[in-house]
Amino acid sequence: MHVLIIADNDQHLEWIKSPLQATGLSINVIYAHSIREAMSLLKSVKFDMILYDLAFSEKGMAENFTRLYASGSKAPLVVLTEAFGDPEAAQALQFGAATHIVKDRQRVSVMAESFKNILLQRDIVYN
């Protein structure tokens, strides 16, 4: 399985590998530090999930999502947020995100289960 992570903070990119690895699935994690880089990757790789960090500094979430959806990818777009009740997460859902997940370093196993459910197209247990 292939997961695209769109974020421009390398610390966010590195720690998110832990819950992805904890799914027990064989996952190839690919990073994009810009929307342009993500668009290029979407042309050459069939992703099973796209993770979009809401701390991503390339503003214009609506435009970014429009561009990502225009790529033709059918992968669920999941936004990663810092806290429950983040208004940007609610906005992301309005723009078409499949769900949002709080980046919780204390509950890696719960995040892993959510990622696994999304990848296996099951109900999400954590958001």
UniProtKB/TrEMBL annotation:
Xref: PROSITE patterns:
RESPONSE_REGULATORY
Q: Which residues form a coiled coil?
A: none
UniProt keywords (A-Z) are: Phosphoprotein
The Response regulatory domain covers 2-118
One Pfam family here:
Response_reg
On whether Phosphoprotein is a keyword of this UniProt record, the answer is yes
> Sites of the modification 4-aspartylphosphate?
D53
**Taxonomic superkingdom:** Bacteria
GO annotation, biological process: phosphorelay signal transduction system
Name-wise, this protein is: Response regulator
